[in-house]
Amino acid sequence: MSGESIARTAVIVSVRRVSEDMDPDRAEETRQLAEGLGADVLQIRTFVQRTPQRYLLGKGQVEELHDLLQALRADLVIFDSELTPPQYRHMIDFLESSVMDRTRLILETFAAHAHTGEAKKRVQIAERMFELGQLRAMNAGYDQQAGFIGMRGPGETLFQKRRRAKKSEIHDLREQVREVDTRYAVKTHTRQESAIAKVAVVGYTNVGKSTLINVLAGSELLAENKLFATLDTAARPAHFGRQSAVLIDTVGFIRDLPESLMDSFRSTLAESRDADLLLHVVDAGVRDLQERIHVVDTVLARIGCADIPRVLVFNKIDTVDQARREKVLLIGTGFMISATTLEGVDRLKDHIAEVLLRHVVHGRYVIPFTEPGARAELYAGAVVVNERLTARSWIIEAAGAAPGARLPQRFLRKD
Ligand SMILES: Nc1nc2c(ncn2[C@@H]2O[C@H](COP(=O)(O)OP(=O)(O)OP(=O)(O)O)[C@@H](O)[C@H]2O)c(=O)[nH]1
Ligand SMILES: [Mg+2]
Questions:
Q1: Would the keyword Phosphoprotein turn up in this protein's UniProt record (predicted)?
Q2: In the CATH scheme, what architecture does the domain 9-110 have?
């Protein structure tokens, strides 16, 4: 896998069982992924699988696909599902063109968008793990085909050699990102101690997470109309009323996110785990909105974020008509906004301020000059809104402290 764009003419193939409906959203998403890598998609072709096929498509269907590729002069065929290693090999042999499946397409997309050293290494880990999985599956397949389970043939030795090489590559790469993973852990820990509220912006890919953070924090994170534009998490300070918070931009999710990517990006994804609040951003304009919400909820649960307070944000509301707005409201309670026209953004900000306030110990502290340690504690554990001096003390107004922060409560004046 190169990570370079695949400037080619492509046909997307969607295979469904007789009992299944065509899933146009999935095929469309595959098209977006392919186009994001520079492919020119000539056609989306659906095949119906009447009986389970060892090679996904029947003999006649593979011939039909072969002829279609020739007629269109397409040099790449993309399956919008995952192929098993034997299916993949079979398609390459029979179709005489390059073959990709959904997993490879997503891996390529990540590879193409990885700009930092860290992201590049994580993608490499995912690629090696994917290849290792393919090796294992192929080996198991050969064993079954040849019927010599347990026999030590030359093929097995080669397999073992390759497997060892992959494993050692994965080990080395993991060592290289371990330091970064530790830094994540330390950062999380420090932030918990300083008790500045943390708001993680999560959601399906391309819904406008980075754009929303830029609006809320006045930042300039990369935001573009591409799936997986963001591959590194980023933190940006923002203010909601008198509350300070850190906004966290995160890697987007997608249905069937390859396991290997899920694994190698786990620590980045888990950045959201100690958030005080999750903004789950969705694109109000997509048809499969509910399914996408479900995909995101499932991943959030898997990475340990199920119990964090959550706000649904229906973004891109500028792209939908009134009828759709009403439909969206039936899907769930949330905020309708547009991160580009800014409609609804102020209401969302007020709501975030309110939620953060619920977490906050807000008060006026009178700390004598003889207790500089208490003043330091307050600065570390809360957001200082105002400070003035009298002859003997600091009078400090503080907010923004999360529950559990160590604050010099003995100096708190309740008035
Ligand atoms: N029309 C419209 N477009 C928007 C809105 N918000 C974001 N966009 C566009 O949607 C595209 C994706 O925005 P990003 O902010 O990169 O989305 P993301 O969720 O961070 O995407 P990934 O990092 O790729 O997962 C960009 O082209 C944005 O300009 C909106 O409210 N309305
Ligand atoms: Mg982004």
A1: no
A2: 3-Layer(aba) Sandwich (3.40)
Domain 196-358 superfamily per CATH:
P-loop containing nucleotide triphosphate hydrolases (3.40.50.300)
Task: Tell me the domain boundaries of the chain.
Answer: 9-110, 114-177, 196-358, 363-413
Pocket test for ligand 1, best of 206, 314, 315 (most atoms within 8 A of CB): 206
Please tell me the least confidently modeled range out of 98-107, 153-162, 380-389: 153-162
Average confidence (pLDDT) over 94-112: 92
pLDDT band at 386 (very low <50, low <70, confident <90, very high): confident
Query: 107-121, 183-197, 282-296, 353-367 — which is least confidently predicted?
Result: 183-197
- Centre a 10 Å sphere on the Cβ of residue 238 and count the other Cβ atoms it contains: 19
**Residue 202 CB contacts under 8 Å (≥ 6 apart), including other chains:** 209, 250, 253, 272, 278, 279, 280, 281, 296, 300, 305
97 ligand 1 Cβ < 6 A:
no
Matching CATH topology for 9-110 and 196-358?
yes
List C-alpha distances in Å: 190 to 185, 196, 271, 274, 377.
9, 10, 13, 11, 14
Q: Which residues contact 120 (CB under 8 A, 6 or more apart)?
A: 111, 114
What's the chain's average pLDDT?
Answer: 86
> Distance (Å, rounded) from C-alpha 205 to C-alpha 348?
21
CA of 202 to the centre of ligand 2 (A): 9
What residues contact residue 207 under an 8 Å CB cut-off, 6+ apart? 252, 281, 282, 283, 315, 316
Residue nearest to atom 13 of ligand 1 (CA): 208
Q: Any alpha helices (H) in 14-80, and if so which ranges?
A: 24-36, 59-72
Query: Does the annotation list 207 as a binding residue?
Result: yes
The string of pLDDT tens digits covering residues 275-312 is: 889 999 999 999 999 999 999 999 999 888 988 889 99
Q: Are the beta carbons of 295 and 204 closer than 8 angstroms?
A: yes
Write the ipTM: 0.99
| CA of residue 209 to ligand 1 center, whole Å | 6
